[in-house]
Amino acid sequence: GGGQRFDLAVALDCLYYFEDHEIHCVLANIRAFLAPGGFLMVGYHLPEDMRFGLYLRSLADAERLLIPHALEIVYSFEVHNRLDRTYSGAPVGRHLYFLARDSS
Asked: Which residues pair with 67 in a beta bridge?
């Protein structure tokens, strides 16, 4: 688009709410707002029983998802936090964090 562009877009704990058929449109819209060389910072929660957002289950999935949008992961890590639990006692603390950069 011809509007304002940003050096950083932040998507913390929100992308997993989109369904498989929606995620590429969402990423294209985010990408349209990034300035050349801009960054996308993502936090992605992965509960054991998640029934949505299944297009991303690993950092390798994230890399594949971003390639068509000219975004390349430049820093990433996975966190397994066994402190957070559901009422039934199941752990819910798995998270992926990554920083991607415009690679066009």
From this structure: none
